[in-house]
Amino acid sequence: MISSAISKLLDLMTDTWVKASFDDLLALADDPKFADAKFYYNEGYLRIEMPPIGSIHSQDNNILTNVVNLFASVKNIRIKGLVNCSFRKPGVAECQPDLAFYIGSEFKLPPRTNSPIDLNEFSPPTLVIEIAATSINDDLGRKRLLYERLGVQEYWVADTNTGDIIGFGISQGRSGEIQESQVLPGLTIALVEEALQRSQNQDDGEITRWLLQTFSQS
Q1: CA distance 126 to 153
Q2: Which helix (H) or strand (E) covers residue 68, if one does?
Q3: How far apart are CA 204 and CA 195, in angstroms?
Q4: How much helix, strand and coil, in percent to the nearest 5, is found in the chain?
Q5: Phi/psi of residue 149, each to 5°?
Q6: How far apart are CA 87 and CA 116, in angstroms?
Q7: 134 Cα distance to chain centroid
Q8: What is the pTM for the complete model shown?
Q9: Residue ranges per domain, the chain?
Q10: 215 Cβ partners below 8 Å, 6+ apart?
Q11: The Cα angle at residue 36 between residues 32 and 39, in degrees rounded to 5
């Protein structure tokens, strides 16, 4: 049962952090009204995001997925990507990043179910990417703290308004800005930004051919 206070607040607010219990999160996640929503929970606060409907978010999502997967493939790096997947630390935290990747030789493949990935059973994703427009300040702030707490190793924020990528390496619960990926060594943030810029006037095939040539030569 959702508390009356949280119910009233959520009738008025999305895309903001609201004080709530983890039980409130579980109840809302089962509410058909929020069937398409994304949920974030950290330190007693809940945020519900409704998915964007414009093409810019989906285009950037596609390009970033291709960049990461192509680089890993060319460099023979083991990788598993997930789109809009929920990760849950029961009673503590929840997130549903735009993109998440398990990277490296040690990770256990997540299960093929319709339930959030249980972070008490599986490790957190290695790399998380949020694609931000109006949520940029939150992605750089509270969400970054959430990913620090969950033990994500690297976090990128893609600003759709500017085409910039802000990358953070995370170690021992603290993050610092990076210019080259630490979990995909050799992949620079500048190259990822260039791929996004090219996508404004080039088709996916043209960008893929450029990426493959660039990665093969590096």
Answers
A1: 5
A2: helix 55-74
A3: 10
A4: 35, 25, 40
A5: -65, -35
A6: 5
A7: 15
A8: 0.92
A9: 4-49, 55-217
A10: 70, 71, 74, 75
A11: 95
Q: Which CATH number fits domain 55-217: 2.40.30.170, 3.40.1400.10, 3.40.50.1220, 3.90.1570.10?
A: 3.90.1570.10
Tokens encoding 191:
């190259």
Going residue by residue through the chain, which has 218 residues, state the pLDDT in tens, using 9 for 90 and above. 556 555 555 554 567 898 999 999 998 888 888 888 899 999 999 999 887 767 888 899 999 999 999 999 999 999 999 999 999 999 999 999 999 999 999 999 988 999 999 999 999 999 999 998 777 889 999 999 999 999 999 999 999 888 899 999 999 989 999 999 999 999 999 999 999 999 999 999 999 999 999 999 88
Q: Which two tokens stand for residue 31?
A: 């509410």
Q: Which helix (H) or strand (E) holds 195?
A: helix 189-198
